[in-house]
Specification:
mainly beta; Glycoprotein, Type 4 Pilin; 380 residues; four-stranded mixed sheet; Immunoglobulin-like; 3 domains; six-stranded antiparallel sheet
Amino acid sequence: MGSTRQRGFSLVEVVVVLAVLAVLAGVVVPLALRIFESAAEDATRDEMLILKKAMVGDPNRLQNSSRSDFGFLGDIGRLPSNLDELVLQGPLPGYVFDNGRQTGAGWRGPYITGGFLGSAQEEFKKDGLGNDYILTVGPGGLDGTLISSGPDGRPGTTDDIALALLAAETSGAVRGTVRGAMGNGLSGIPMTLHFASGGALRDVTASTDSNGNYSFSGVPFGPHSIEANPASGLLALASGSVSISSNGRDITFGVLNLSSIAVIVSAMSADFGSRGSTNYDQIRIDGLTVDHGSNFRSGDRVSITSTTLAGGPATNTLQRIVVDSPETQVPDIRLGQSGGGTPVSVELRQFNRSMNGVAFTVTFLAPGGAAVLGVVTFVP
C-alpha cells in the first residue's frame, strides 16, 4: 500500500502571501476609511441643512400660498447665538401673541425635529465625524456660518465643511405706499412696523415721502404687521383738490384730517423755494380770511385765526405681512375722505407773480407751534 504525504507551505510562500496581504491592506484600509469619511461627510451636510432649517425655517413650507415656517429666526428675530438655544429656552422670553399688533414674538421650541445620528440630546451639536459644530453669528444677528471641522477635526483647514447663513436668507427691506381716496400718494404719514427682535416685539417708525412711499431695512424674515398712524391728528392733502386761478396768483387746495380726533391749526408756513421778491398777502380757510398781512415770503411762519378740523371715524390701517425675501412689497394702504372728517379749503392769495408749476410745501402747526400737524406738498 502506498502512503500520501502532506506538503506544507514553504517559507517563501508564506512570505509572498503576507506581502500580498500587506499590499491589499495598504489599498483596502485607506479605501475603506475614505468610504467611511465620505459617508460621514454626506451625513454631516444633511445634518447641517436640518440645523439651518431649525434656525431660519423651511421656505418650502406654505400655508395659504404664503411661507409659514421661519424657525428660530421668525420667533426671536435673530439667529441663535449658540446651538443650545434651538432646544433650550434659557433666558429667552416665551412666545406671546399681541392681539393689538397682530403679531407675536418669543421662544416656542424646541426647533430641532430629528434626522440626526444617535439619540442623545447633545448629538445634534456634533457632526457625522463626532466633532462639535461651530456656529459664528455676525454682530447684527442676521448672518453667520455653520462649520464642521471635517475629517481632520481641526477648524480652519481645507477639509472644513461650511454652510453660510446669508443676510439675504434672513432679512430684507419692507416697502409700500400710502394713498388717498383718489390714488394719490400721501406724504408725511407716520408708519409703524411691528416685528420680533431679541424675543420681544419691537416697533419702528418711518414717514412717507412726497410720493407716499415708505421703507424699512434690515427686517428679519417672519410674520409681522404694519400700520399707518394718523391717530395723533394728521393732516393730508385732499385728493384732486389743488387749483390755481387763471392769472396764477391764487392757489387753492383741500386739507383733510385723517385722524379720529379734531385738531386745531393756529399757524402755518408755505415754502415755495424762493426768499426773493416772491410773496403773497392773504390766507383764507373755507372762504374766511384768517390772516391778511403783506409780503409773506417763502418759509415765513404765519399765525392765523385758530381753525378746527374735524376728525372722522377711526379706521383700522393695520396689515399683517410676511417678510420672506430681500424685498417685500406691502399692498397699498388707503386713506382718504372715508377715513377722516370733511376737508377744508385753504387759499394762498394775492401772489405778486404767477405760481403756476411751482412746487409748494405747506406746514400746519398746532397752538404754540410745538407740534407739526401735517405737511402737504403739491404743484399747482
